[in-house]
Amino acid sequence: MPVSNNARPHTLVCATHPPDRKMSPMTSLHDHLTLPNGQVLPNRIMKAALSEGLADKRNAPGPRLEQLYRTWSKGGYGLIITGNVMVDRDQLGEPGNVVIEDDRDLALLTRWAATTKDAGIPIWVQLNHPGRQANPLALGHTPVAPSPIPLALPGAAKPRELTSAQIEDIIERFATAAEVCEAAGFAGVQVHGAHGYLINQFLSPLSNRRDDQWGGDADRRMRFVLEIVRRVRARVSPHFAVSVKLNSADFQRGGFTETESRAVVAALAEEGLDLIEVSGGNYESPAMTGVSVASTRAREAYFLEYARTVRGLVGDTPLAVTGGFRSRDAMADAVTEGECDVVGIGRPAVTTPDAADVILTGRAEAVVAHQMRYGMRRVLGKIADLKTLDGVLDLNWHADQLHRLGAGLEPDLRRGRLATTVSMVRRNGRTSFGRKRGA
Description:
Helix content: 25-40%
Low-confidence stretches: 1-23, 281-297, 434-438
CATH architecture of the largest domain: Alpha-Beta Barrel
Mean pLDDT: 85
Number of helices: 16
CATH superfamily of the largest domain: Aldolase class I
Radius of gyration: 20 Å
Distance between the termini: 29 Å
Largest sheet: 8 strands, parallel, barrel
Number of domains: 2
Structural class: alpha/beta
Number of strands: 14
Strand content: 5-15%
CATH topology of the largest domain: TIM Barrel
Oligomer: single chain
């Protein structure tokens, strides 16, 4: 496969808004956005990554993923990002992950990439490595991590510490996967650096106790993500989008802080990225599931307050915020006031696949976020962390709906706790109650 060395310089000019200045108050959700690489998003609403778990037994995409993304292609989004695509088939986040290690599935990936072309919507692949969050049911191998520190969850396996050679191999895997994605016709990739996965593990002092070139201080902890971005950018064409999803913080004492996150954002902005998406939390402290961060939830965007603090650091790099957006007014205000360039919709896009169109056309003032909870605090609260159990249940309820969409069916909003619990145990085995899925 040919390799492109046409990396873009770090100093970029974005036609949509100048650096260090809020966007025009006339900017609206309907407006297109020209990214630094010249790619144009038709509007400002993004279908954020959601882990689908719909790959076949070979971890290749197939008809169910094609059906799901054809459905989303009719939803009016300005950008669609796929869920967890792994770069190593020996290290999976869950059963049903798509894996891209080489071009063996190029024809199938090409079909997947084509699902949004008729609608004129760019589709990017989210690339990921689970690190210590690898799912044992899908694994068959010991998970790996920057340091041999297991998740603080019941039954979590102790990971094997990565060697420097293995770290270099993983960096190369991200670059190879990005190159294959471009060959397949995808418009870009998003490197997943949030939610406690491997890149986030390198960034956090709780999970990275190394004292070499990959850890020991904040600068060395961020080297892993910077090297991945540089390697990816060097291997794809200048017009192929490269982005990163990053935590605002881990919301854990001694973990990855907002101050450290802002430093990483500033460093990433120097690398010629086309978009930075802000999210937050991890499987031990899951802000991304909406079980915390109440102060920002009141403004319908868990991480919007953080986004305001980094706006001046990103320069020309567009900023996306995902988490909590439900009403049209909140989305419009975030863009109009220049707090972010793009708003991401996650779970509402599962039960309302055309959520962007609903908002943009004014068919409704808000999209509904369905939540599934066990609601048995007196019983379950004595034997388990109820927030963890509720987060697991809710994410798996949405996974069931994704599987229905992949089968060409409508979402089943009446699906209950028992049916959801049974299906998640079938998918994830004994680890169902000890970890949460996400993208």
